[in-house]
Amino acid sequence: MAAKALFFDVGDYVVYPKHGVGRVIELQKQEIAGTSLELYVLRFEKERMTLRVPTNKAESVGMRKLSSDKTMREAMETLKGKPKVKRTMWSRRAQEYEAKINSGDLVSIAEVTRDLFRADDQPEQSYSERQIFEAACSRLARELAAMEEIDEPRAQEKILEILRAAAAIYNKDKAVA
């Protein structure tokens, strides 16, 4: 077997699709069922969780480095867009939103954040809508915070400012119509 180059180094921020942004805290070698495995040890501070991912499985589970600046700009532009609200049952939409969040794709997460955002002058969200919105917004904010080297609350405020500005534009359109 040829030795495969490691994608991530200790200290790198990485995105694990189902859990969001974590940091590689060490590389470990462990013997499991007689097989020697190299593992990335990831730490997710917000969840207070440690995850071990075999280095040879990192790519197949979708683990990736932080997004490029171009992808982050695309995600921020997505937030400025008009929310798309489908008229399907909530349970089906909720499944689609969860799938987008767990995909780890930044632009898809931004779409969920945009579509579920409610400005102060808009009707209340249901509990489950609010939960999914917060999960998407938090996931987006953590990646933005890691990329811009700011804390998560500042990143989240930046996202909410963009969403409020967009909501003001699109809600004004509705009031005129």
Structure description:
Helices cover 47% and strands 20% of the residues. With 177 residues, it is of the alpha+beta class. The protein has a 5-stranded antiparallel β-sheet.
What characteristics describe this protein?
CarD family transcriptional regulator; 5 strands; CarD-like/TRCF_RID; alpha+beta; 20% strand; CarD_C; five-stranded antiparallel β-sheet; 177 residues; 47% helix
Beta-strand proportion: 15-25%
- Please give the alpha-carbon distance between the first and last residues: 66 Å
Helicity range of the residues? 40-55%
Structural shape: elongated
Record the strand order, biggest sheet: 4-3-2-1-5
Structural category is alpha+beta
Instruction: Give the low-pLDDT segments.
Output: none
Q: What sequence of helices (H) and strands (E) makes up the elements?
A: EEEEEHHHHH
Q: Output the radius of gyration.
A: 19 Å
Mean pLDDT, nearest integer?
89
Main sheet makeup: 5 strands, antiparallel
User: How many strand segments?
Assistant: 5
- Tally of helical runs: 5
